[in-house]
């Protein structure tokens, strides 16, 4: 079986800055893959390329066996790519349930069905009690949860999570981890960008480390964290020699 | 959960129906033609503002050039009637269709503009439309055109002796604009529009085709406004460029919605009920030429609202709901 997502030799240049150079990664069906790397490694750029916010300068992106390189974001969503944003982008003047209905409309044309689906997702993500609250009144942890709920309502095959566990208290982060596991158990493939290593490493099946726009190392989380190249990228030369 | 939503929707319909019946009875008691005139204008601007609200309130694309569509409706109806003898009922639909098409043709380049730039473009385009009509000899140029009076008739929608038919037509217009809004509110379009207004990037990531949503909103909005323009032309039976396409009409469509509550179902009507009588009264009682004074009055009103209740007067009614959150 082919991989669900594949990037083939993807480059992204912003003027003179090379944000991604020759990035080729693949994500298999049912996996949880972590995309990590120090600040400025090009994680967010790669994420935006996969979600279709902008087309890559060079290279191609394949999703579910098809070339989606030139499809806009909305169409990729229809094909099954769901995403969250690092800086939460809730529909602030709408209620929580209405936020989720927007996502649910991708696969449900009848309003009643969309509403039912949205309630289902709120139940699943533990936001049911907040359904009729305005999104602007949610606390930060709930807003992150709403991002996930909205994306789940589109019934994605691949869920892109952009730092959903960052900036949460340890308890909140643990519930977040449980939610990601639950999502995977429903058969959704997860690709997540994360900063907090100790949370993300036990969660993912595989980790891809980006540094300076390139894929540095790829493998099982345990191997990745011991890799001298990774330690060097994060902490500098001195520590790498020590390891 | 679902039940309370359906109940709320049903309650809104019920309130609207009761208000319609109540409004329909008013002219039986108030026979003064001046007051009736104010009621007609209030209903008309309520309907216009409700239509403006679809594009600018729900979808968040602030237009200050809706006078263009108002004028297009007025001119299409009048020209078809005076030049070709086409009944105004048909002219109304033709005007609506032309306006919707032009709104989409203009939206094609303009919807690529963000925020304030879009609003500025709409002002400029409406002014260009005004200038074109002012110089179009066949359409009466700056002098305008007069509707030939051919006696009272439903077919020609002319009534010299009574204002009642105009009143009921304006009421129907307000009902239609309200109902279209009510219906769209709980449709894919309604959700798409609000998502586009709040955050286009997030909307796109959830499968919303932002450009299409804006085009749809523009078309519906322009169509309804043009119907209002047609009605106005029939009502006053004489139009010239300044009196149907002037910038003040763009403002008079935007202000009731802003005052009552932009992007809300009841806001535009509530705003019109306060603003239009106020405008008409200041115009007739304070100062002869008046224009300056009524603008001062509602300028002040808007400033007060912006400071005290930025979400519009409708916010007064939902205060309880806020407190319970």
Percent range for helical residues of chain B?
over 70%
Described by strand count, sense and barrel closure, the largest sheet of chain B is: 2 strands, antiparallel
CATH class type of chain B: Mainly Alpha
Order of helices and strands of chain A: EEEEHEEHEHHHEHEHEEHHH
Number of self-contained structural domains of chain A: 2
How many distinct beta strands of chain B?
2
Please name the CATH topology of the largest domain in chain A. Rossmann fold
Subcellular location (chain B): Cell membrane
Membrane topology (chain B): Multi-pass membrane protein
Transmembrane segments (chain B): 12-30, 92-111, 166-184, 215-239, 251-276, 296-317
Organism (chain B): Bradyrhizobium betae
What brief labels describe this structure?
heterodimer; A: 243 residues; alpha/beta; Rossmann fold; 2 domains; six-stranded mixed beta sheet; five-stranded antiparallel beta sheet; 11 strands; globular; B: 325 residues; mainly alpha; ABC transporter involved in vitamin B12 uptake, BtuC; two-stranded antiparallel sheet; 75% helix; disordered C terminus
General description of the model:
The complex is a heterodimer of chains A (243) and B (325). Chain A has helices at 43-51, 73-79, 96-104, 111-125, 140-153, 170-185, 197-203, 221-226, 228-235, 237-242, and strands at residues 5-14, 17-23, 26-27, 32-36, 58-63, 66-67, 81-83, 158-162, 189-193, 206-211, 214-219. By secondary structure, chain A is an alpha/beta fold. Chain A has a six-stranded mixed β-sheet, with helices on both faces. In chain A, strands 1, 2, 3, 5 and 6 form a five-stranded antiparallel β-sheet that branches. In chain A, a hairpin with a 2-residue loop joins strand 1 and strand 2. Chain B has one domain (3-324): ABC transporter involved in vitamin B12 uptake, BtuC, CATH 1.10.3470. Chain B contains 14 helices and two strands. The model of chain B is unreliable at 320-325 (pLDDT under 50). Classes of the chains: A alpha/beta (243), B mainly alpha (325). Chain A binds chain B through residues 51, 53, 72-74, 77-78, 82-83, 85, 89-94, 98, 101-103, 105-106, 109, 111, 115-116, 119, 131, 133-134, 137, 150-151, 153-154, and chain B through 1-2, 5, 186-188, 191-192, 194-195, 197-199, 201-210, 263, 325.
């Amino acid at each position: 079986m082919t991989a669900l997502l594949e990037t083939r030799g993807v480059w992204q240049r912003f003027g003179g800055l090379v944000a991604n150079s020759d990035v080729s990664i693949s994500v298999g069906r049912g996996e949880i893959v972590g995309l990590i790397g120090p600040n400025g490694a090009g994680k967010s750029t790669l994420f935006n390329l996969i979600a279709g916010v902008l087309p890559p300068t060079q290279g191609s992106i394949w999703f579910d066996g098809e070339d989606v390189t030139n499809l806009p974001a909305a169409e990729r969503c229809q094909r099954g790519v769901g995403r969250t944003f690092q800086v939460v982008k809730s529909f602030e003047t709408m209620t929580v349930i209405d936020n989720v209905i927007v996502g649910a409309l991708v696969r449900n044309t009848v309003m009643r069905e969309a509403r039912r689906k949205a309630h289902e997702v709120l139940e699943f993500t533990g936001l049911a009690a907040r359904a009729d609250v305005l999104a602007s009144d949610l606390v930060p942890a709930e807003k992150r949860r709403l991002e996930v709920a909205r994306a789940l309502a589109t019934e994605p095959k691949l869920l892109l999570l952009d730092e959903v566990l960052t900036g949460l208290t340890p308890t909140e982060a643990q519930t977040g981890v449980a939610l990601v596991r639950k999502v995977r158990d429903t058969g959704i493939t997860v690709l997540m960008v994360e900063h907090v290593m100790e949370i993300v490493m036990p969660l993912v099946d595989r980790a891809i480390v980006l540094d300076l726009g390139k894929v540095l190392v790829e493998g099982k989380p345990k191997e990745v964290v011991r890799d001298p190249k990774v330690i060097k990228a994060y902490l500098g030369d001195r520590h790498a020699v020590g390891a | 959960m679902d039940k309370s939503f359906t109940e709320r929707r049903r309650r809104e319909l019920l309130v609207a129906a009761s208000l319609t019946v109540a409004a329909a009875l008013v002219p039986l008691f108030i026979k003064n033609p001046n007051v009736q005139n104010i009621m007609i204008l209030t209903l008309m601007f309520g309907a216009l503002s409700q239509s403006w609200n679809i594009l600018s309130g729900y979808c968040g694309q602030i237009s200050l050039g809706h006078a263009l569509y108002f004028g297009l409706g007025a001119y299409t109806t009048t020209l078809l009637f005076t030049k070709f003898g086409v009944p105004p009922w048909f002219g109304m639909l033709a005007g609506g269709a032309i306006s919707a098409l032009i709104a989409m043709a203009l939206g094609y380049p303009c919807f690529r503009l963000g925020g304030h730039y879009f609003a500025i473009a709409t002002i400029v385009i409406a002014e260009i439309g005004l200038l074109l009509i002012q110089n179009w000899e066949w359409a009466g140029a700056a002098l305008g055109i007069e509707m030939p009076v051919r006696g009272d008739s439903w077919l020609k929608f002319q009534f010299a002796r009574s204002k009642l038919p105009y009143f009921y037509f304006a009421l129907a217009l307000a009902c239609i604009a309200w109902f279209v809004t009510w219906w769209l509110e709980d449709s894919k379009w309604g959700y798409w529009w609000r998502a586009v207004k709040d955050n286009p990037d997030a909307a796109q990531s959830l499968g919303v085709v932002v450009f299409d949503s804006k085009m749809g909103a523009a078309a519906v909005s322009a169509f309804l406004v043009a119907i209002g323009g047609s009605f106005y032309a029939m009502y006053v039976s004489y139009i010239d460029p300044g009196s149907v396409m002037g910038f003040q009409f763009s403002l008079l469509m935007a202000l009731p919605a802003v005052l009552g509550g932009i992007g809300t179902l009841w806001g535009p009507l509530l705003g019109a009920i306060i603003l239009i009588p106020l405008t008409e009264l200041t115009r007739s009682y304070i100062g002869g030429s008046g224009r300056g004074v009524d603008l001062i009055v509602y300028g002040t009103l808007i400033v007060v609202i912006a400071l005290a209740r930025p979400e519009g007067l409708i916010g007064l009614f939902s205060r309880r709901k806020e407190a319970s959150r």
